[in-house]
Specification:
This protein is an alpha+beta fold. It contains seven helices and ten strands.
Length: about 290
């Protein structure tokens, strides 16, 4: 009887095992991280700056001088070391930093912090941090801020040429300024693309010329060449309007008015393609009034 019971137990176990779904060997259960991963991307001008990091929480703990010691490199996050990628050369608080991907560390202090951009990658925390791999160190000053439970980064004070990146956690914000040379980048791209533009492409040289004009750059010879190329490809309200602005800027108000009035009249009479919207002529019409009044 005892032997029969043993056989029945074995048969029941085998039946149960057969009924359970078989999983792949070595499969791991995916669980949420205590400090979740995060990615932040901000375009400054035409440069995409990307941060990858993990976000620890305060959770009632003492942070500065406690969980995060003073005068010790900190991964500026949790888990893997935080990384920051610059596809173009930048400057950090006025100091140059070549394009590249860097591990981003900070060294908190009671009278100021140090921000560190390190060439080593794929680091876990700051345990293997090697100061000989530092590409740049800059001094930064923490500021009081509203309480933030989950550590994070934020961009503000954004312009076409710079932005402020801040570390936010607990009751501190630690800002650094990132600047890019947007004008040189745009001009380099224009010098490459304008000569390659097709004969009927009026837009590319116009955009290049308009950028120089709008940003008051010193590249007037290139601007004039690009505008002439645009007009040669096709006379449009946009390139005729820019030429009128340049004539007025040169003191040739009568020529500017005549050209601008023709451009406005042609745009208003132009037959629109399906779904196309008419260009707003009012800014140029306002300038015509101003030029006539002087």
């Amino acid at each position: 009887m005892k032997g029969i019971r043993s056989i029945l137990v074995l048969l029941s176990a085998a039946t149960l095992a057969a009924a359970l779904p078989a999983g792949p060997a070595g499969a791991a259960l995916k669980l949420p991280r205590v400090s979740p991963n995060a990615t932040l991307m901000q375009t400054i001008g035409i440069t995409d700056v990307t941060l990858t990091y993990s976000r620890p929480g305060v959770k009632g703990r003492g942070i500065w001088g406690g969980l995060v010691p003073y005068n010790t490199p900190w991964r500026t996050g949790a888990n893997e070391a935080t990384t920051i990628n610059f596809p173009d050369d930048v400057s950090i608080n006025g100091q140059p930093l070549p394009a590249g991907k860097y591990s981003f560390f900070t060294i908190p202090g009671t009278s100021g912090w140090t921000a560190v951009f390190n060439k080593a990658q794929n680091l876990w925390g700051a345990y293997a941090y090697d100061s000989t791999q530092d590409a740049l160190r800059v001094r930064v000053q923490p500021e009081p801020a509203e309480f933030t439970e989950w550590m994070g980064f934020e961009f503000d004070s954004l312009t076409a040429r710079s932005a402020r990146l801040s570390v936010r956690w607990e009751k501190l914000r630690v800002p650094i300024t990132i600047a890019v040379n947007t004008d040189d980048q745009v001009l380099a791209e224009a010098r490459k693309l304008v000569p390659e533009a097709k004969p009927e492409d009026w837009t590319t040289p116009y955009q290049a010329a308009r950028y120089v004009y709008d940003n008051k750059l010193a590249n007037t010879d290139e601007m004039n060449q690009w505008l002439a190329k645009s007009i040669q490809a096709k006379e449009t309200f946009q390139n005729q309007g820019l030429k009128a602005r340049l004539l007025a800027q040169a003191g040739k108000k009568d020529e500017a008015v005549a050209l601008a009035e023709r451009a406005v009249k042609a745009e208003k009479a132009r037959t629109l393609a399906k779904g196309e919207e008419r260009v707003d002529t009012s800014p140029l019409e306002k300038l015509i009034t101003e030029w006539k009044g002087k």
